[in-house]
Amino acid sequence: MAWENAAARAHSLELTVKELESFSYAVSHDLRAPLRHINGYLSILAQDFECHLPEEARHLLERSRQATRDMSRLIDDMLELAKVNRIKLKSDMVNLSALARGAMERLAEGDPGRSVEVVIADGLYVQGDKALLTQLMWNLLENAWKYTSTRDNPKIEVGRIIVDDQLVIFIKDNGVGFDRKYKENLFVAFQRLHGREFEGNGIGLATVKRIIDRHEGKIWAESEKGQGSIFFFVLP
User: What sort of enzyme, by top EC class, is this (predicted)?
Assistant: First the structure.
């Protein structure tokens, strides 16, 4: 009887979580259209009426446009987070080295003024869903790219170590790092360990954790404030 009650509660909880995820996905999706309209109207004001606006009004207009861009990214990230549990996993042999190089190329193209030393080990093969692992590598490397932006000689490394006969993948950077006493909050949605000097909303690493959980793997991070960070993950 106790086992049946526990199973029933677990099933009820699973249904509730799925309903909340569906609600989050629907709300986030439906917010896109009105937000595009708001941003469009603000752009028209900025382009057609800028010369008629006082300096303070132009400043407020630009802050409003930035707020819509931030909200648009938040919606995209929320949709990405919700989508992780909606995708049916397809297990293949995936070349993480190639995914890492592709992500770094995209990051460099989007920020051509930066020079970053990048070291990516060859032959990092794992079993998993390629689409989700592509998102995982992008989120982790985008994170490293962002938090090395204030360094004079930024470096990002992707490699492997073997621990107890198990392959462990790592992404290491020499960025600003984080206070290790807060690392339990690292993978919690909307939890930020840095100030507004760095863009972000705390969803990227939550998405990474959810991808790892779906693969029944493990992820953790080590860091010292001002000494860079290293993320480790294991896939079964």
Answer: transferase
